[in-house]
């Protein structure tokens, strides 16, 4: 956790060195009943100094020029026997019998080789373990450390400030790394607390990572087959793209073991920053505070059956004061949180793939998707520089021109007012010749919630954006929204909701709410039910999902429009274009709604009901609602819409209700 996130090799080697550091700090006598005899034979506690100690741990070697063990009844020979690399007695058994007032190591060097020519060196200063009783150290500390990476594809260097830990269980640490288990035992706590201050690391690409402080609580895990050392070794020097099926299965199984076994009760980091100086434009990412919490889930505990219970037993993560800057681009998030997150589905799938004969399919890989829970953000802002705003507008203008027929473009250029009247919209203001201004967008709240995945596809989702504020000019090229600036809106204050749920058994997709609303504008809300929605609809292959879409049917739909000011502004702008009084134009729309709409829709009772409701809405614009339900329980499919001879033929297949108030 103290190194750059993408430095997996560095983190792995450092973890091994910390493990070895703890083991070295906890050197003790040979296990067995001889402990009592040794204490009886010792006349008094003593201080013992060991010189030039070297301990190999796989590809990592720990070297200490001097170790002083104070306040111990162990002799020098006892300690040398403990530190003997090929001792037949397990580390856990030896460490469980250690008693000393303190152990001090002025300099501890961790040297890790590989993969290839890569070499990692970490030098710890003033390492001390205090009050070591029964294999537990009440406190472990180091005044600082320096790290260097050389000889491989990545080179860099960094420093740590003070490092500290409390209630370190040396025997538990040894068991996790060296003693195999079934992965189902209780979580063994290794550290009560861990803290590291003033972390700085810079690589050869000019990327610098800084951490003011990081604190962890209740760090530990479960014993797994082959031990943690064996699981970590499975990843060493393996290229997944070139690995054979047996290697991939071994790595997959090791990943599942480690994900389930490792436990961090809580983690908090402050003053995190990442900067890049060698790119085309300097990059800076800052996080004021990051926090993570994960309750211990013991084997045999019943799985949560409600969202509240799931949130109480799932991991939660939050970030505060997040800032991003590159060139003229600036963005900031006041708070970002992720709750209800769980890797349980990922682990289950990894277990199935941990078989040399397994042939992962796209469907199986989708099942690796974890339970995402709820992602929430508050106080978001985005500032886009003027040159990027101008480029985006030019691109939108070119796209609109390309999609407009030549004849229409000629007519519009000759008489923009006539073109606006033909379209039934107010003319947009002419583009200013001056350079574009920087764009400022803010969002008060955003929340995205995903239900438990079914074959990798969330069965429910809800996206909610509240207080999205942006200049009206930014939607100038969006159909239906491009004239908002001409209606007097300078800034848009919008809320958006998309709430859906998929029932695989019924093959239905419920559109519980799809809505957009704007301050001093109104609300457009859509709800409904779609049938024939199979898992193939969510396939990543566009051809497969497109073919599955052809089997979808519309069973029911509810459309609601609420006016809170937009309609009045529309009438006012249109009346000026058409040289009519607002009341005159409104009456024309009433006539068109009451008489014209039914004619277009076939003059059926449903068509007349829709026209009448629209006329009432135009007369007194408040709320208009239209509901339609297919008479056939299976719904209306693509064929029904494409083969309908007229709108009337389609309406005959629906039960329609329309009203306004």
From TrEMBL:
It comes from the Bacteria. Keywords: Signal. Residues 1-27 form the signal peptide. Residues 399-413 have a biased composition (Basic and acidic residues). Residues 393-436 are annotated as: Disordered. Residues 414-436 have a biased composition (Low complexity). This is AsmA-like C-terminal domain-containing protein. The lineage of its organism: Bacteria, Pseudomonadati, Pseudomonadota, Alphaproteobacteria, Hyphomicrobiales.
